[in-house]
Design a protein that fits this description.
With 456 residues, the protein is α+β, with helices and mostly antiparallel strands. It contains 11 helices and 19 strands. Helix 2 packs across helix 3.
Length: 456
């Protein structure tokens, strides 16, 4: 694993590609090289099901010639001669590609320098250099599963697993940028099954973070998975009608996902977003803030620079309920006549707009306070299907959860559908105060009043 911490080799490969592309006639070029290793183990009923170990090396090059663009990628280390041929092939491809007037490198003036990258890398603290032994991962998974199975009503395990990964990336551009960073991740999870025969229900819980010391207690996670599964037993039906609906934090994040997709610069440029004409307008209640923070310490979505080498700063997509800006990289910004806000996301040769640590901020009232006035409502814990139209905002998904009666969670319910339009749903969304920043996309419990529900 020591080679993962030494990025000089992949840096050299990226530099060779960019230099070779320039010699072959590219007017501009950038290369991204990555190296990662991961270990994961999974168990069911105490017996090992999978034991996986993977390592990956990849490199991708993007070149620009006469207003045209081409990209190419490969796995493996690659000798200098192979990398030079790869670069020459990319330039030849660009020369016969159709023009793309918006594709470009980020402006040189917007790029981070090495000193700033180094300082931010230290601040973000994304790397835990401790390397867990397979036996440690095994113990975590088995402890989680045992705790799930110990819950009264749990009949069997749906499986438990634990994993660790570490990786690094380097970005090099022909106009002088060189940047790199390393990150780690630790995780474990369990799925519990309650009941018997056709009346079985399942649920899960997990923990994931950058540093091992931030993991939750495995026994707590296992018990939570078991308790959630048992609570879903013997679900009833709900009558068709209009209900106030509360979204559990686990699925409230899906609403953030729909919002982020709708303000993605690529969707705006294509005119395929239901929010395409809403910039500067009030979308949510005035109490709502939605932010994106790539500089969150140990954040699962954090990074010292974006996929084009631009310094990323915290932004609010929604302030006082108002939509303030789109998610932009350099290309979509140019197409829209704007400037990038350093939200280029990149896993290969071509960047695209993307969020980092996306957060719906907490509201003033607890979930219990929001629920207190509800005589007959629904608390959602599971969503099924993908019935969301990004162009119109129409929303329809299968669901399961619990009935709310007289301000308290009551019996389990399932096999119903919730429906509406995301513009109307956003306008009525009320966040609770129970926000926990433990994922790259985080939301508290959310209440949306007056949703259509199709049941029996």
């Amino acid at each position: 694993m020591s080679s993962l911490f030494d990025q000089s080799e992949i840096l050299e490969r990226a530099q060779i590609l960019v230099e070779a592309a320039s010699k072959a006639g590219a007017e501009a070029a950038d290369a991204i090289a990555a190296r990662s290793a991961a270990t994961s183990l999974s168990f069911r009923e105490g017996a090992m099901e999978e034991n996986e170990r993977s390592e990956n090396d990849s490199i991708a090059l993007r070149v620009f010639v006469g207003g045209c663009k081409a990209s190419i990628s490969t796995n493996g280390t690659g000798e200098r001669e192979e990398l030079v041929k790869l670069a020459e092939r990319a330039v030849a491809m660009a020369k016969v590609s159709p023009p793309d007037p918006y594709a470009r490198l980020a402006d040189k003036d917007a790029l981070m320098d090495e000193a700033a990258i180094a300082a931010l890398r230290d601040k973000l603290d994304l790397l835990d250099t401790s390397m867990p032994e397979p036996s440690e991962l095994k113990d975590m998974a088995l402890e989680t599963e045992e705790a799930a199975l110990s819950v009264d009503g749990v009949s069997k395990s749906g499986g438990a697993g634990a994993g660790h990964a570490i990786g690094g990336m380097v970005l090099v551009t022909s106009h002088g940028f060189t940047g790199s960073y390393l990150s780690s991740s630790f995780s474990f999870s369990a799925t519990a099954i309650a009941g018997e025969g056709t009346a079985m229900e399942r649920d899960y819980d997990y923990s994931s973070c950058r540093h091992r010391e931030d993991l939750k207690n495995p026994a707590d996670v296992g018990r939570k998975a078991g308790e959630r599964a048992v609570a879903r037993l013997n679900p009833g039906k709900v009558e068709t009608g209009t209900y106030d609906v509360m979204f559990d934090p686990r699925i409230a994040t899906s609403l953030l996902g729909h919002f982020a997709g709708a303000i993605n610069g690529a969707a705006i440029a294509r005119q395929t977003s239901f929010l395409k004409d809403k910039l500067g307008e009030q979308i949510f209640p005035a109490s709502v803030t939605i932010s994106d923070d790539p500089n969150r310490v140990r954040g699962l979505g954090s990074h010292p620079f974006d996929g084009e080498g631009v310094a990323s700063h915290p932004l609010n997509w929604i302030e006082d309920g108002v939509l303030t800006q789109w998610i932009l990289d350099s290309a979509t910004a140019a197409e829209l006549g704007l400037k990038t806000n350093a939200r280029a996301a990149r896993s290969g040769a071509n960047p695209g707009p993307g969020s980092s640590n996306l957060t719906l901020h907490a509201g003033a009232q607890s979930p219990q306070e929001l629920m207190a006035s509800m005589k007959d409502g629904i608390y959602l814990t599971d969503l099924i299907g993908h019935g969301v139209n990004g162009v119109t905002g129409d929303y329809s998904r299968g669901a399961a959860g619990f009935r709310i009666r007289n301000g308290e969670i009551a019996e389990a319910i399932s096999e119903f559908t919730i429906a509406g339009n995301l513009i109307d749903m956003f306008a009525r969304l009320i966040p609770a105060s129970d926000l926990v920043l433990d994922r790259a996309v985080c939301a508290p419990t959310c209440l949306i009043e007056g949703m259509a529900v199709a049941g029996r």
